[in-house]
Each structure stands twice: as C-alpha cells, then as structure tokens.
Design brief:
This protein is mostly helical and 178 residues long. 75% of the residues lie in helices and 0% in strands. It has helices at residues 7-15, 19-32, 34-44, 46-64, 75-88, 92-113, 118-137, 141-153, 161-172.
C-alpha cells in the first residue's frame, strides 16, 4: 500500500521547487484536470464563475429532465455534482444558489410527473435545509428569501413535501407568511 501524502509532504515538495517550476506544475494541473480549470475560472473571473455555476446547474437539470422525456433522476449523481461544486465555488452564495436550484428542479420534476418515493422527498428537503442553514450561517437570508418563499409556495403537495419545506423554512428563517 502506498504511503498517503500529507499536507506537510506537499509543502516540503513545494518548497523544493523554484517559482518557475511551481508555475509549470500548476499550469500542468490546470491543463489536465477540468475541476482545477473550473476552480481557477471561478476565483479569477466573476463572469467565468457564473458560467461554471451555469454548467453545474445544467448538469443537475439534465439529471431531472433528460432530453428524451421522463427520466428517473439519480439523486446520488446530483449529490456528487453538489460536492464537486462546493470544492470550487468562489463563495458560499454560489453554493446556496446551486442548492436552491436542486430543490427547484426536484420540485418541478415531481410537479411534472407526480408522486415520487419518500426518499426522493427526504433528499430534496435535506438539500433545502442545507441551503437554509448556509444562508443563516453566511447571513444571506435577505438575498435568497424571496426565492425560498417561492419554492415553498409552489412546491408539490404530495407526501407532505410542501409541509416539510415550510417546516424547514420556519425552523431556519422564522415563521413568516408565505
């Protein structure tokens, strides 16, 4: 079994390199790995960060709504996309935006195709809670409140889905009339 490289090992490696060698190494990583490219695009350019977010939103939308009609969304793929994006997101607000997009797409999907499994609703409600929690932590309620209200207001009512979203909203944001 290979030895796991630690942060200390990595720092030692970097210290042994010249500035030119470090630039070459990072440039090589940028060329080879799409997520490294997305990371630098997100932190170096506001317009590129919106484009990267848009690509992730498109991938999530395609999980719910395939080009050929009804699809069975793989929420594990959606969670994987969320986790990938969290690693490159330039700010928590971008992550909140993506999380709310997932809830909007999940809600639209169930409105379009009817009742889903209980686990589907639990997953989407959990994503909404994650977004709400991050909104509170990052003091971003005002920026996303109207969008959250619309999510709850227009949510599918099957399996108590709308009630669950409303309960989460009340828990994190407060009991406001929607």
């Amino acid at each position: 079994m290979a030895k796991k490289v630690s942060i200390a090992d990595l720092k030692k490696h970097f210290k042994s390199k010249s500035e030119k060698e470090l630039i070459e190494e990072i440039t090589s990583l940028y060329k080879r790995f799409a997520n490294v490219k997305d990371y630098y695009a997100s932190i170096l350019s506001p317009s590129d960060s919106k484009e990267v977010l848009g690509r992730y939103k498109d991938k999530i939308s395609k999980e719910f709504f395939s080009v050929v009609g009804y699809s069975n969304p793989k929420l594990s793929n959606v969670r994987k996309l969320i986790n990938e994006y969290k690693k490159i997101a330039p700010s928590p607000q971008h992550t909140i935006d993506l999380l709310l997009h997932v809830v909007e797409e999940g809600s639209a999907f169930t409105s379009e195709y009817g009742d889903m499994t209980e686990s589907f609703y639990i997953s989407i409600e959990g994503t909404f809670e994650s977004a709400l929690n991050l909104m509170v932590t990052e003091n971003s309620i005002e920026h996303f409140d109207d969008r959250c209200r619309d999510i709850v207001k227009y949510a599918f009512q099957g399996w108590g889905f709308q009630d669950g979203l409303n309960s989460s909203y009340d828990k994190y944001i407060g009991n406001r009339e929607i």
